Amino acid sequence: MEMNYLMSYFSAPITNKVPLTKLSLLEVARIIASPELEPQTLALRKIADEVEARRYKGFNFPYVTPAGVFSYCSDQSLISPSEVLCMDLDHIQDVNGLKQKLIADRLFETLMAFRSPSGDGLKWFLKIDLSKCSHRQWFDAVRNYLMSPAYGLGPKQADPSVRNESRACFLCYDPEVYVNPDLMTDYR
Question: pLDDT tens-digit profile of 45-57?
Answer without folding.
Answer: 999 999 999 999 9
